[in-house]
Amino acid sequence: MMRKLFGQSTRDEDSEWISVADLMAGLMVIFLFLAIVYIRPLAEERVRIKDIAVTWQESEVSIYEALEEEFRDDLPPDGRPDSEGSRTSIVDPDPTFGLAGLTPVDR
Predict the structure, then answer these.
(1) pLDDT above 70 for 82
(2) CA geometry: angle 34, 36, 23, nearest 5 deg
(3) String of b and e for 15-40 (b: at least 16 CB within 10 Å)?
């Protein structure tokens, strides 16, 4: 019954049709090639971004070292800029600075 529906075929005859497996293998190769073509520029861009980040970090370190060398004599011996001489404090402990009793018109 199946041979009546689909026709008879023998393996000895040359078929002009490509088998499904060969077709899928060809499509797989095409998509693999497209994936490689798409990913390669992304990898190159990633390397370029990494180089920029490394250059920026080296520049930041060199600027920090140059500033530290320039202002080394101006810093206190412990190296902290907020020593007793440069510390700022609020003398009035009232956080409203005496404005708590005023109305919006008085302010």
Answers:
(1) no
(2) 45
(3) eeeeeeeeeeeeeeeeeeeeeeeeee
Closest Cα partner for 40 from 48, 52, 28? 48
Those residues whose C-beta lies under 8 Å from the C-beta of residue 90, and which sit 6 or more positions away, are: none
Q: Which amino acid is at 32?
A: L
Sign of the dihedral defined by the CA atoms of residues 41, 45, 46, 50, in that order? positive
Greatest C-alpha distance within the chain = 107
**Average pLDDT estimate for 27-45:** 94
Please name which of 74, 101, 93 lies closest in space to residue 85, comparing C-alpha atoms. Answer: 74
Question: Domain segments of the chain: what residues?
Answer: 40-76
Residue in the block written with tokens 């019954």? 1
How is residue 46 annotated by DSSP?
H
Tell me the two tokens of residue 41. 């520029």
> Quick one: which H or E segment has residue 28?
helix 20-70
Q: Which residues contact 107 (CB under 8 A, 6 or more apart)?
A: 99
